[in-house]
Amino acid sequence: MRWRSLVPFSALALLPAAAQSAYTLEQVYAGDTFYDGWEFWGNRDNLTNGATYYVTKGESAGVAYTNEAGNAIIRVDNRSELAPNGLRNSVRMTTARTFDLGRLIVMDALHLPYGCATWPAFWAHAVSWPSGGEIDFFEGVNLQETNQVAMHTVSGCYADNATQATGELTFNNCDHGVDANRGCTFVDPRNGSYGADFAAGGGGVYAAELASDGISVWFFPRADIPADLRSEAATPDPTTWGLPMASYPSTTCNINQYFAPQQLTINIALCGDWAGQPGVFSPTCGMGTCADYVKDPSNFDNAYFEISSIRVFSGGLNTRAATAVAAASGIIGAIGGQASAVSAAERGRTAVGGQGGVAGAVGAAAAAAGLAALALLQRAL
Q: Is 59 a catalytic residue?
């Protein structure tokens, strides 16, 4: 959800153009240049303790490439036999740049990895983790049938049990130190959001809005992709898309406080701390261990992403800069005699959520309240 300013037109005219604009295309990862701007891990999976070696860019020819259709293929090696306890080649790649609030991140994919032992994800995280937060747009393990979205933060951030979303909130504490870093999690009720059903439906689009008043994630099957996401020239407007699948409003998690600029990461882990747990692996994948399953390359024929594009749009109203400008515009209104002391104080409490100044009475008391609002904003950011 994006805020709508209540600043009088005369004050709004003073805002920078970027703070008033709709989303416009900022970055595209697609086609032969898809892999430009990504850094490859080049190490074993020492983060989730999986049976995976994440290749360097120089080693990636068989697992990260562009197919004849011009789509990016990011996959697990499905050719090599492994010795016992061997590590299977896979990919973990992260954008060199970061993206701050006020961004819309859109992945258009035709196929997503699935199958026993696999643990794929498309996610965003701060350079300094966990203090800068993490949001998982797409993630699952083994033969999971639907996608789950999760946020992971330091202590104090929660999902709102009363929030409006189409997904089911299954855990509301985002603290990475609680319940083995489960995160505050929404589960998509639609089978088409994951696995074989996703591919059979022609794939679809995941879209995530990172805004100061909340983080929201949508999934659109191929047949239901909004018109304003179907071309690179489009200017998306999430307010027209209906309820998101997952929604994390800043009312229960101050997004400005808990989320620093984010890098994007795509990876496919194998086994490890989640997919490889006997209580997780065995119920859907049968007898034997996850490590034994990894030895046979044919088990990973479906363990790949096929991505048409990842696009990042910027200029949304809900940026860190825009909230500061909104508070400043409220002070301008107060000094000009257009805001009351009461509404200016209220503006100070809600500025981080994006509210600006409102018309009211005149005088020094209003101006002083506006200055107090700015002080509150500075402490919150």
A: no
